[in-house]
Specification:
Layout: E1 2-8, H1 11-27, E2 32-33, E3 40-48, H2 51-61, E4 71-75, E5 79-81, E6 89-96, H3 98-114, E7 129-134, E8 153-157, E9 159-168, E10 171-181
Antiparallel strand pairs: 1-3, 1-9, 2-7, 4-6, 4-8, 5-6, 6-7, 9-10
């Protein structure tokens, strides 16, 4: 099973981001825009796991330490990975709430590592964000679209969800495996 954990967004926030992604697609038709169901804050992408590993992750998610307070977030603007040069990923950054999301991320990693069953290595600095589009070869200038991304949107993140990602010809389908309510 292909598994990841994420913080889902309220539907109103997804709608706003979907509008922004559509504008990016209008301006740069070769971008692969993320579908609305794929707009979330990815915490851990586990990749392919067997049933026992998934059950172990579910047990970790029962740890009361993960029941941190709901996270007040303000998002808006536009960013890219890598930070310079041709963007491979175009995203909406988190302005307020990023330290709380990062705390939950590191706590989750620590609890997973403590099981001794996962050798998860953090390969890069965690940057809470919502991916809007992916890019292969298109020349994209984010300075040309920054004006339309000058907005701030407030929301509350209230759950950590473990998903199974089922790859289909029309795109990935996400099945909820387990939910931890925050707060």
């Amino acid at each position: 099973m292909r598994i990841f954990a994420a913080l889902p967004l309220p539907s109103q926030a997804v709608k706003k981001l979907e509008e922004m992604a559509a504008e990016l697609k209008n301006r740069y038709p070769d971008l692969r825009v993320v579908k609305p169901q794929g707009m979330h804050i990815t915490m851990v992408f586990f990749g392919e796991l067997n049933q026992d590993q998934v059950l172990e992750i579910m047990r970790v998610m029962d740890n009361p330490e993960l029941k941190v307070a709901s996270i007040q977030v303000v998002l808006g603007g536009i960013g890219q990975f890598p930070p310079k040069g041709r963007p491979r990923v175009i995203y909406c950054p988190i302005h307020r709430g990023a330290p709380e999301i990062s705390y939950l991320y590191h706590l989750y990693y620590q609890l997973l590592s403590n099981t001794g069953r996962f050798s998860i290595e953090e390969q890069r600095e965690f940057t809470p964000h919502i991916t809007l589009a992916r890019n292969k070869d298109t020349r994209v200038s984010l300075s040309g679209v920054e004006a339309m991304f000058r907005f701030e949107y407030s929301l509350i993140l209230d759950r950590l969800v473990l998903y199974q990602s089922i790859l289909r010809p029309q795109g990935a389908e996400y099945k909820v495996m387990k939910t931890v309510m925050l707060g």
